[in-house]
Amino acid sequence: MKSPEKAIDHIVNWLNNYADKTGMNGFVVGVSGGIDSALTSTLCALTGKPVLCIEMPIHQEPNQVSRAKEHIAWLEKKFTNVSHNSLSLTEVFDSFKEVLPPVSSQENQFLSLANTRARLRMTTLYYFAALKRYLVAGTGNKVEDFGVGFYTKYGDGGVDLSPIADLMKSEVFLLAKTLGVIKVIQNAAPTDGLWGDDRTDEDQMGASYDELEWAMNNQNANSDLLSKREKEVLIIYNKLNTQNQHKMQAIPVCKIPLDI
Question: 60 burial class (0-12, 13-18, 19+ CB within 10 angstroms)?
Answer without folding.
Answer: buried
